[in-house]
Write a structure and sequence with these properties.
The chain is an alpha+beta fold and 560 residues long. Helices cover 29% and strands 30% of the residues.
């Protein structure tokens, strides 16, 4: 703690020199008591040192000189009032200087909007890649996972001492899991408990999985007190660093826990934030390590905290034409959604196992549920991509998807949580877990973002996906297969045909003499409505490995 004592000592002595008057009026000098004056020179520095020490110790505020601006105004103003003559003039100038510095700090948001937008800049694309339907999206909602962990809390020794900490998702040994540390439930429990016993894990893809308690003693935690408090421990090691976001627990492939916290720098004055790296803490011993963003260990998924991503989304959406436009004209302004599961963003994984934070953007105009676009931010690098979607179509935002679910299950009072936009079969689609009033998972709901009348639900994400494919074909939509499906061509004789009317189109299912069944909409090939048994056909299809392969095109030989 030597650094904070030295910092407080320097501030206390400097403040005393400004606060204590060295020159007084004759009237004041006549009444001056020598002992009182001597006591002031001793007591004032001591009081200020104690106040500064207590403030910075309790708040964990960074100890940069710029953090002293409110204190500087008070001290210099008081010093000017208590002094006289030339000394008052000097201290008044110091006070004016402090006021100017404070104005610069307070007005920084008015002038650094362009810099913020540049920091939050995103690469622009139209659509994300088609989701591989052979995979299972990490779609177990955190509320449901947390409920299951609470019910398994009896696995924790001395259960009454502890409570469940913050939940977050991570990839461990190629599996997607939720992790939640066991935390102290109060000061006296910490005083008697000394350390927390471990953490819980549960699958983020399998809703039937049960929580597992992993033993791992942790002394430096967010719920500890005094110098064992994690945030204070980090601040003591790095007094000048700027942090943004809460500490997060990450575990390596061997199950060893580490707390991490994102650090960076202000964009200008004491405003804005740009990420630079993380601080890693081994919670049993308190060993800390400062790691640049480019050198973050592979097992760390959330190097860029969700709070930072949410902040940068706000910069990107609001400051496209500067600060004043974000308040008045609002030209091209887009507001990031607040439906995310962590600091208004939702963590998801791509097929390569890389984690991204998802956010959709909507119009600042009230009553509008049309989505303007969506973003994916890499949780390790902070690199972001903004997807405009098909500009010829109007996409429903996440709030609109949640409202559809609420109306669909209005009698049961079920609600959606964690809506994520996917590209299912070439269609922008919202996948949302549905929970009952007690937080238990009931089903998975999929609705088209462009055609909200097309919606399905199933007990699992993959079951809902199969139903969704059929619903798209019945609704006349195009089905492009999955990202792994290879486009192939075959020929044969039609053995059986089944036709079903679907809105403005006809859904045609047929079996070839090769034993494989296919399905095609007349929207793709209008002549498919004439298909009958014994026809010889050429078929272009997507090899998805399903019972009914989605056909893109069919040519009936001899028809023309």
């Amino acid at each position: 703690m030597g650094n904070i004592f030295l910092f407080s000592l320097i501030i206390g002595l400097a403040s005393s020199l400004i606060l204590i008057p060295f020159s007084r009026s004759k009237k004041a000098k006549g009444k001056e008591d020598t002992q009182t004056s001597a006591g002031m020179f001793i007591s004032v520095p001591i009081v200020i040192i104690i106040l500064v020490l207590a403030f910075y110790y309790l708040t964990n505020l960074d100890r940069n000189p710029s953090s002293l601006w409110p204190f500087a105004i008070l001290i210099t103003a008081a010093g000017a009032v208590f002094s006289s003559g030339k000394e008052r003039m000097v201290k008044t100038l110091l006070c004016l200087g402090s006021v100017l510095v404070s104005i610069f700090i307070l007005t920084a948001p008015l002038f650094n909007a362009d810099e913020k937008y540049e920091v939050a800049s995103m690469t622009e694309k139209m659509e994300i890649e088609v989701f591989d339907e052979t995979k299972t999206p990490a779609s177990v909602p955190p509320k449901f996972a947390r409920n299951k962990m609470k019910k398994a809390f009896g696995q924790v020794p001395n259960t009454s001492y502890y409570e469940l900490g913050n939940l977050q998702i991570q990839k461990v040994k190629d599996e997607y899991v939720y992790i939640a540390p066991v935390e102290f439930s109060g000061f006296f429990k910490w005083w008697n408990g000394d350390h927390t016993p471990g953490y819980f894990t549960i699958s983020a893809t399998d809703s039937s999985d049960n929580p597992k308690f992993i033993k791992a003693e942790m002394t430096y935690t967010p719920s500890s007190y005094f110098n064992q408090n994690l945030e204070r421990h980090i601040r003591m090691q790095y007094p000048n660093l700027i942090f943004y976001g809460k500490p997060q627990l990450e575990i390596d492939d061997e199950g060893a826990p580490y707390y991490i916290r994102t650090y960076g720098e202000f964009i200008s004055a004491r405003n804005g934030f740009e990420v630079e790296g993380i601080i890693m803490v081994e919670p049993k011993t308190g060993t800390t390590e400062m790691v640049a963003l480019a050198d973050v260990p592979e097992f760390i998924d959330g190097a860029v905290s969700p709070e930072v991503v949410s902040l940068h989304n706000s910069y990107f959406g609001n400051y496209i034409h500067g600060f004043w436009n974000s308040k008045f004209g609002k030209s091209d302004v887009k507001l990031p959604s607040d439906e995310g599961t962590e600091a208004n963003v939702s963590p998801i994984f791509d097929e390569n196992g890389d984690m991204y934070y998802f956010t959709d953007f909507t119009s600042p105009k009230e009553g509008v549920d049309s989505m303007l676009g969506y973003s994916l931010t890499n949780s390790r690098t902070g690199d972001a991509v903004y997807y405009t979607g098909n500009l010829e179509e109007s996409y429903m935002d996440s709030q609109g998807a949640l409202q559809i679910i609420e109306k669909k299950f209005i009698e049961k009072k079920w609600q959606g949580e964690m809506p994520i936009l996917y590209n299912f079969y070439g269609e922008a689609s919202w996948l949302t877990p549905v929970l009952d009033a007690n937080g238990f998972l009931q089903n998975y709901f999929i609705v088209s973002a462009a055609n909200p009348e097309i919606s399905v639900y199933g007990n699992t994400p993959n079951e809902a996906l199969k139903q969704y494919k059929t619903a798209l074909q019945r609704g006349g939509g195009s089905v492009d297969g999955n990202s792994k499906a290879e486009e192939k061509q075959t020929s044969g004789i039609v053995v059986r045909v089944y036709k079903e009317k679907a809105e403005q189109f006809t859904l045609v299912s047929f079996l070839l003499d090769n034993g494989q069944s296919y399905i095609i909409s007349s929207e793709n090939t209008a002549e498919a409505i004439y298909l009958q048994a014994d026809d010889e056909v050429d078929v272009i299809y997507m090899d998805t490995g399903e019972d009914f392969m989605p056909a893109k095109e069919i040519v009936i030989k001899g028809l023309n």
